[in-house]
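Researcher: Next entry in the queue.
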Amino acid sequence: MRTTAFSPSNHWNPAFRNSQITPQRPKTNAKPFLFNAKNPLNHRQAHPPFPSFSINPSKNPPTPISQNPNFDPPPLVVVGSANADIYVEIERLPKEGETISATSGQTLAGGKGANQAACGGKLRYPTYFLGQVGEDAHGKLVSQALEDSGVKLDHLNTVSGTPTGHAVVMLQSDGQNSIIIVGGTNMSSWPEVLPDEDLELVKNAGIVLLQREIPDFVNDQVAKAARSAGVPVILDAGGMDTPIPHKLLSSVDIFSPNETELARLTAMPTENFEQICQAVAKFHEMGIKQVLLKLGDKGSALFIEGEDPIKQPIIKAKKVLDTTGAGDTFTAAFAVAHVEGKSKAECLRFAAAAASLCVQAKGAIPSMPVRESVSDLLQTL
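Model: Structure for this entry, 381 residues:
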């Protein structure tokens, strides 16, 4: 079993495979991480296997690796949810039994998986999305938004008889939001065993992004396939508030919660940085070597076991219109920077810049920045 630590994917540097061996992760019986899921079978069309790549990485290339015309880099593969987000703009949340009027409303493509894939596409990194939509208007909306963002949809499955997942996003005047999710095709009709062509795509990826708006058994298969091929996996903790199976965590290279999720999953306080460090240590004890923590307006931090945390303050936005999708933008931008060979600190900074731009526009996918905008912002700092 191989590890990637915080270097680019093994597919970028063949010598890396022979230089580092993953130690056995310690076993644990920690109660918060026991959960099993089962879902009905479904079939998806076969696609040709994705070719593998081999190239020596450059730590700080003069131009983004993904834009080098001489070769195709191993892709970012996002496996996760796709939603139609039904936005309603309100002054405040309604009280129990109260009816209030929204100032406006619209339906946009979203879902944590689709959001992260769209961000990768907009950052001009080759990105595949592996997920499911229904044969309905919402499914077409999501597919079109992903395609427009430059995401490859060869492994997007269309399911008959089940509606596309959707969410009601209640956007308040201060930019904060509350969300209600309806799972739809995100949570049902997945095949019990993922097709070989999907797992081959994962094994030939440069990096894989997972979230928790699809069944855990799907994430588990993907994470194991990636680990068997030496492909780094980032698991975003966002989504279901159920305990995370330890077998899934054991196949993850980087675990990425926000502050609220960290507190919930560890049952520990996170009111100050010292408490946050103690909560993160609980994941280190369970074998998670790297924790990428999103701290909202307090910035972010990367915790690597045995090393001092790397802190990144927020890059202040000129105005905050909508925080929806900011966390997904941060995670995806971090993944893109990581697979392109940037340093740990550079990955955090690149992700912070992308998130800063995201909150300045409404919607999730529509607000995600293109690479030129991120580069321009970083040059002004």
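Model: Confidence is low (pLDDT under 50) at residues 1-63.
Researcher: Noted, moving on.
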